[in-house]
Design brief:
Blueprint (H helix, E strand, L loop, with lengths): L3 H27 L4 H17 L7 H21 L28 H20 L2 H11 L4 H8 L3 H28 L1
Length: 184
């Protein structure tokens, strides 16, 4: 007698066979990224689906999978850094100096700025109420409002309110930080 795990695995295999090519085509239309990034985004979404037994394998599940894959594509595309043609050739160094190695990494000044901004955003998250922070995190992972409500024992309205208030607070803090940077 087949177990529920093996039945789910067979259902996912059929779901994959039916939706894989279509998913990749949709994500490629929504995300401006190389083909490999699109493929990675889709595979990440499929991997997340494998871990989530609460996702139905129907049209709603396909819509959820598409949303997750597109968001993964955007995330991967935003972190991908291409090395422009010709940047690998190092400039001739001054006599007695070593040439700078070619790198796809941003300059240290940009990395330091990114770390400082990241620290500010993490600090902003700490100012949120615990429930706002939790709901924003779950929503960022791809959970829908009603799924968050069910998982947290809240109403749909409460989840909606916490997400709106949390986002508004984060925008307000970012605006205040930008204004103080402009003045300083």
């Amino acid at each position: 007698m087949p177990t529920s795990t093996s039945v789910r695995a067979e259902q996912i295999a059929a779901f994959y066979a039916y939706h894989a090519v279509r998913l990749q085509r949709i994500v490629a239309g929504q995300v401006n990224a190389p083909e490999q990034t699109i493929e990675d985004a889709c595979q990440n979404a499929w991997t997340i689906l494998l871990r989530r037994s609460d996702i139905t394998l129907d049209d709603r599940g396909a819509a959820w999978l598409t949303t997750v894959a597109i968001r993964e594509g955007w995330r991967l595309a935003s972190t991908a850094r291409e090395v422009p043609m010709g940047s690998i050739r190092a400039e001739l160094p001054e006599r007695g100096e070593l040439p700078e190695p070619a790198s796809a990494e941003p300059p240290l000044s940009e990395q330091a700025l990114a770390r400082a901004e990241h620290a500010g955003r993490v600090g902003d998250l700490r100012t949120l109420k615990a429930r706002e922070r939790r709901d924003l995190y779950l929503h960022a992972l791809g959970y829908r409002y009603h799924e968050i409500a069910k998982a947290t024992g809240s109403s749909y309205t409460a989840v909606d309110r916490r997400l709106k208030e949390g986002r508004a607070q984060l925008r307000r803090l970012a605006r205040e930080r930008a204004e103080s940077d402009d003045q300083g």
